TrEMBL record:
PANTHER family (alphabetical): DIHYDRODIPICOLINATE SYNTHASE
InterPro entries: Aldolase_TIM (IPR013785), DapA-like (IPR002220)
Pfam families reported in the protein's UniProt record: DHDPS
Keyword Chloroplast appears in the UniProt entry: no
Record-given protein name: Dihydrodipicolinate synthase family protein
Family named by the database record: Belongs to the DapA family.
UniProt key word Lyase: yes
UniProt cross-references to SUPFAM superfamilies, sorted A to Z: Aldolase (SSF51569)
UniProt entry keywords in alphabetical sequence: Lyase
Length: 296
């Protein structure tokens, strides 16, 4: 098994630029991927929740991956391949490989509260596509919890190489390291970045670098390199924004921050609706404060 691990470092779960008519703006997306890499990020994760994959057509979803690969190269692109059925997720993993990607990210079954046997079968099926799989544990949204013992079993059976951990329980980092020391832990929620970096995370599947890539990359590297005085200062400065990554309105919030720093965030597709006035005011104030502090 190759030791190449393209999921290490700062991989941005990319927001997807939409036009006013809610069609996908692929040219803007290509430019956005290149801009992120040019500003200190290591790669992108298209077709995650932040990329609104659930409301894309199959044709759009495939083209998003192809656009990212054309912009920055397949080595830097780790698409999300979540779907209701294991066969569909495997097809998306195969499409990623055909497009030139070298790894994929996979949620557990999320159409229902799957039991352990179903989870194991799901990851085994998608692993047959031949690409390394990074599991995505998001028990808040999927209601399926990839607890450390289950992650260790998935890794031991060769189905996964890493995990994006979004439970918010930073204590799990140490248990995962005990049970599966070769399983790469990736920071999955922006607002526990420092805690998981100190606990040994090897990467960050990140949201807010969509708007603030340089400051976010600086924060990540300071944290994983043990430069804690620098990391703590940046973390305090950015945390009023980072915590939006763990809220229901994370897509709208990050897109608004993108707009405010001169990028193109733009609208979201239904059923997502615009932020409430008080939410917009909070995101706007936090973004403007971060910009004034030099984060943009």
């Amino acid at each position: 098994m190759t030791d190449h691990r393209p999921w290490r470092g700062v991989l941005v779960a990319t927001a997807l630029p939409l036009n006013d008519d809610l069609s996908v703006n692929y040219d803007r997306y290509a430019e956005h991927c290149a801009w992120l890499v040019g500003n200190g990020c290591d790669g992108v994760v298209p077709n995650g929740s932040l990329g609104e994959y659930q409301v894309l057509t199959p044709e759009e979803r495939a083209r998003v991956v192809e656009t990212a690969v054309a912009a920055i190269g397949g080595r830097r692109v780790m698409p999300g391949v979540a779907a209701y059925g294991s066969a569909e997720s495997r097809r998306w993993a195969e499409q990623a490989g055909e497009a030139g990607c070298e790894a994929v990210m996979l949620l557990p079954p999320n159409a229902y509260r799957a039991d352990e046997r179903s989870v194991l079968a799901h990851y085994a099926e998608v692993a047959k596509a031949g690409l390394p799989v990074v599991a995505y544990n998001n028990p808040i949204d999927t209601k399926v919890d990839l607890v450390p013992e289950l992650l260790a079993r998935l890794h031991g059976e060769g189905h996964i190489r890493g995990v994006k951990e979004f439970s918010g329980d930073v204590r799990r980092a140490y248990r995962i390291a005990e049970l599966a020391p070769e399983l790469d832990l990736l920071i999955g929620a922006d607002d526990v970045l420092l805690e998981l970096a100190v606990a040994g995370a090897k990467g960050w599947v990140a949201g807010y670098p969509n708007a603030l890539p340089q400051a976010s990359a600086e924060l990540y590297h300071a944290a994983v390199d043990g430069e804690l005085d620098t990391a703590r200062g940046l973390y305090r400065q950015l945390h009023p924004l980072l915590r939006w990554d763990s809220r229901v309105e994370f897509v709208q919030a990050i897109k608004l921050s993108m707009d405010l720093v001169g990028r193109h965030g733009g609208p979201c597709r239904p059923p997502r609706v615009p932020l409430l006035p008080e939410q917009e005011a909070a995101v706007r104030a936090a973004t403007e404060k971060a910009v004034a502090a030099g984060s943009a």
